[in-house]
């Protein structure tokens, strides 16, 4: 029996996914510690109280069963005022037509024409730092490339670049209050409304104009639907690749053998991208439980929230032997860095392209590098984890 007589949830293991000190020092090391020490599924009283999946199979099960573990509230503690994001915050069957409408914009053939632009942006960014012999990587490189790609793809004016990056960093700051986050959300929505109104009046050759012209279930999209889709794209497009790149480079700074491999054999870079995504996935996705259910012998109640840390999927020994090791010689790279099930990230092909282009450019132009001081980087907790800074140096 997993409940005490007063109805309390059990087993209990106290863990704050936003502000746990170990998490803020090194989020992956802390989740690995939890994997070893905490029960497979546990209740924590932090952040209003919620369940935490602590194995890959359980995290995967939760994100693959939206009929029980809903995406309608994507925050712990629940924030009912959170701006809606279509299709991420929809469950089946409402989710499917929006996903079908958006998918063609992100297929490999649709993003292929962007490749040369991504190469050019990457070269420009690296040219600004190479001669200095060092940089704060997150602000100088990792946070800039994906923003440039997204803004041009979607149709935002590039002169708003610095403002947009600041908005996203602030919005994802796990220590922001709900009021601060709502205010930032409103600012982002203001920018989106302005762009959508401009393109409704005068379409251009960009993604938002094409989405405006698209149909869902045979009808035009309403303005609030366009805003909702745009809000999701804004946040997803401006943060995910930044985090993947930062965590990947932190690992590489301490893995001379793997750096040498990438320098000697650039053909290994797609495998390098995949393995670093597997080892350092960074999303812990909240779900809302819609009905009483038993999971792994534990009784969960309708109305409870549950956190599914996706790094655990790639750390499952049955999927990936010796998961703690980083190796580009695996036969398969099984992970959930882009999610799993119906909400798998639409932008995964674009993200992989950006990461592969970046690593190729870095290893051909910079080569070996190091972290200036290990442990000074600090992590951001919450549902989308990140490195707040990463100081790197190399021979200029």
Keywords:
396 residues; alpha+beta; Cytochrome p450; three-stranded antiparallel sheet; 16 helices
Give a brief rundown of this model.
The chain has 396 residues and is an alpha+beta fold.
Structure, explained:
Strand 8 (293-295) and strand 9 form a beta hairpin. Helix 9 (161-172) packs antiparallel against helix 10 and helix 14 packs across helix 16. This protein has helices at 21-25, 27-37, 56-63, 95-106, 108-111, 115-129, 137-142, 145-154, 161-172, 178-201, 207-212, 223-252, 256-264, 269-279, 311-314, 348-365, and strands at 41-44, 50-53, 69-70, 134-136, 215-216, 219-220, 284-289, 293-295, 298-300, 305-309, 370-371, 379-380, 386-387, 391-393. The protein has a single domain (21-388), classed as Cytochrome p450 (Orthogonal Bundle), CATH 1.10.630.10. It is globular, with a radius of gyration of 21 Å. The strands form five sheets. A five-stranded mixed β-sheet has the order 1-2-10-7-3. Helix content is 47%, strand content 11%. The protein is α+β, with helices and mostly antiparallel strands and 396 residues long.
């Amino acid at each position: 029996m997993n409940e005490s007589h007063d109805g309390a949830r059990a087993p209990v293991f106290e863990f704050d996914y936003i502000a746990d000190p170990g998490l803020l020092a090194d989020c992956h090391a802390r989740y690995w510690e939890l994997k070893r020490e905490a029960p497979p599924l546990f209740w924590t009283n932090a952040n209003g109280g919620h369940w935490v999946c602590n194995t890959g199979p359980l995290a995967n099960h939760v994100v693959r069963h939206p009929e029980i573990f809903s995406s309608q509230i994507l925050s712990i503690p629940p924030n009912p005022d959170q701006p809606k994001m279509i299709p991420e915050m929809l469950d089946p069957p409402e989710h499917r037509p929006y996903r079908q409408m958006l998918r063609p914009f992100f297929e490999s053939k649709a993003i292929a024409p962007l490749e040369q632009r991504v190469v050019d942006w990457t070269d420009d960014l690296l040219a600004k730092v190479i001669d200095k012999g060092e940089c704060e990587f997150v602000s100088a490189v990792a946070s800039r490339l994906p923003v440039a790609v997204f803004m041009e793809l979607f149709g935002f004016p590039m002169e708003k670049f610095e403002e947009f990056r600041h908005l996203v960093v602030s919005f994802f700051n796990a220590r922001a209050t709900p009021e601060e986050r709502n205010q930032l959300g409103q600012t982002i929505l203001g920018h989106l409304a302005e762009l959508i109104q401009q393109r409704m009046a005068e379409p251009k050759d960009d993604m938002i104009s094409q989405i405006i012209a698209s149909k869902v279930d045979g009808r035009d999209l309403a303005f609030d639907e366009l805003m909702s889709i745009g809000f999701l794209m804004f946040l997803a497009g401006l943060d995910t690749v930044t985090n993947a790149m930062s965590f990947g480079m932190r690992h590489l700074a301490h893995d001379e053998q793997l750096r040498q491999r990438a320098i000697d054999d650039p053909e290994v870079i797609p495998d390098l991208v995949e393995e670093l995504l597997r080892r350092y996935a960074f999303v812990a996705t909240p779900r809302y439980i819609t009905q009483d259910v038993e999971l792994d012998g534990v009784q969960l109640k309708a109305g409870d929230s549950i956190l599914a840390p996706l790094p655990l999927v790639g750390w499952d020994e049955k999927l990936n032997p010796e998961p703690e090791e980083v190796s580009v010689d695996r036969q398969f790279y099984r992970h959930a860095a882009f999610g799993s099930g119906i909400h798998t990230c639409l932008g995964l092909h674009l993200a992989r392209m950006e990461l592969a282009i970046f690593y190729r450019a870095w290893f051909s132009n910079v080569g070996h590098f190091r972290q200036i001081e290990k442990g000074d980087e600090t992590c951001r907790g919450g549902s989308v984890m990140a490195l707040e800074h990463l100081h790197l140096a190399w021979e200029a």
